[in-house]
From TrEMBL:
This is Uncharacterized protein. It comes from Paraburkholderia sacchari. The chain crosses the membrane at residues 32-50, 62-82, 88-108, 120-139, 185-214, 226-245, 306-326, 338-355. It comes from the Bacteria. Keywords: Membrane, Transmembrane, Transmembrane helix.
Length: 407
């Protein structure tokens, strides 16, 4: 249920229904997303002994992410106190819930992993179809109060186009790592179309580079595959060039190489760090001072989540947050062999590379939560494929040996 809500019921949808999920008004409404509630219930179930079920509090796979979540909550409480308190309500849904998910998924079985994978595949189909239909009809299914100038950008399931892009790339890359070749091609084509509809140039670049590396690596694994790759590369480049430059799936992507206001804001976001003292750089900056710096730079939004975190939390606490997630990912990956466990690190690398191109992680988003869940599901399924493949090979060898002996 938590994954269903995280995938298909976005904060934008809750706002559209009048539940004031991400609004600043102090009126009644849903301020914590249902997927966070379901995940917290899961943590409590695993953490408490009842009946024949034993508590997981003695298991490192459970304790480490829970302890890291406690550290993150401590950072949030510390930074929200005092006269220069920060507005950090987003962080429970965006950061803490992901660590809670990391404490639960190691104890789930293959059936659950495959069920999560199927839900992710359905999400990619629904999300991408909505985005492509929106860009052709110029009608948003879940409209949001954001203006994009002369460009139309799809909002699909998750509201803001860049938030959609981050969620989609995370899920798509995870699915492709454990998908069949045909399913991976379908995911790739749909994702390219949707990212173009979102106008997410940074996410599109990260996604294309990731798939290009996979494609070349696939070709180098066999002499038979190499001609296929050598033929496929120019054909693929030609098709992608037409999709991107023709504006068929979004006029903004046709200017993919242009240095516009959006590109300038990303550079200005980094340059603004030079406006604060070393003390503020280490411990964080007062919100009023951040607003003054943004006004002086004529920047309305800091389009880089890492820069925004350094402003809000300071370099010391930002490093602590990254250490918490790195440690949890390391514990999550330790269960499997280097190939399957390494996929978790790869998914996180693609996730953070995509996240660096926008500020989605400074808002309420299930992106990091889904990164944890789907990296686990992908690693689990990859590991099962390797194990069953190895057993099948051993069985074939045994059959050959027995046949030879009988002969």
């Amino acid at each position: 249920m938590a994954v269903v809500f995280a995938l298909f019921v976005s904060g934008a949808a809750l706002n559209y229904l009048g539940l004031n999920y991400s609004g600043d008004e102090s009126v009644s409404g849903l301020k914590v997303h249902p997927y966070v509630v379901f995940t917290l219930i899961g943590v409590l179930v695993f953490g408490v002994s009842f009946g024949t079920r034993q508590s997981k509090m003695s298991d490192r796979r459970f304790v480490t992410p829970v302890f890291c979540s406690a550290l993150v909550i401590g950072v949030l409480i510390f930074k929200s106190m005092g006269s220069g308190r920060q507005s950090l309500g987003f962080a429970v849904d965006t950061l803490v819930s992901a660590l809670w998910a990391a404490s639960i998924v190691p104890f789930l079985n293959e059936r659950m992993a495959r069920r999560v994978w199927k839900m992710g595949f359905v999400f990619v189909i629904v999300e991408c179809t909505m985005a492509i239909i929106e860009v052709f009809t110029k009608i948003e299914f879940i409209p949001i109060d954001t203006w994009y100038g002369s460009y139309f950008r799809a909002t699909a399931l998750h509201g803001h186009p860049l938030n959609n892009a981050l969620v989609l790339v995370t899920v798509a890359v995870s699915l492709q790592l454990s998908a069949t070749k045909k399913a991976s091609v379908v995911i790739f084509l749909l994702t390219i179309g949707a990212l173009s509809a979102f106008g997410a140039r940074g996410a599109l670049a990260v996604y294309l580079i990731t798939n290009a590396v996979w494609f070349v690596r696939y070709g180098l694994q066999s002499v038979r595959r190499l001609p296929f790759v050598m033929t496929g590369v120019p054909v693929g480049v030609a098709i992608l060039s037409w999709v991107l430059l023709s504006g068929a799936f979004g006029d903004r992507i046709a200017n993919v190489g242009a240095y516009d206001d959006s590109s300038g804001v990303r550079l200005q976001s980094i340059q603004m760090l030079q406006s604060i003292s070393w003390g503020n750089l280490i411990v964080g900056t007062d919100p009023d001072q951040i607003l003054r710096i943004m006004e002086n730079a004529n920047v309305s939004v800091i389009e880089n989540f890492l820069v925004a975190y350094i402003f809000m939390f300071g370099l010391a606490c930002t490093l602590l947050l990254f250490l918490c997630f790195w440690t949890s990912a390391k514990v999550l990956a330790r269960r499997w062999s280097s190939g399957s466990g390494g996929s978790i690190y790869l998914i996180f690398m693609v996730f953070f590379a995509t996240a660096m191109t926008n500020n989605s992680l400074v808002t309420k988003t299930p992106a990091l939560y889904l990164c944890v869940v789907f990296s686990w599901a992908s690693a689990y399924i990859r590991n099962e494929h390797k194990r069953t493949g190895w057993h099948a090979m051993l069985a074939e060898d045994r059959l050959h040996i027995v046949s030879s002996a009988n002969t």
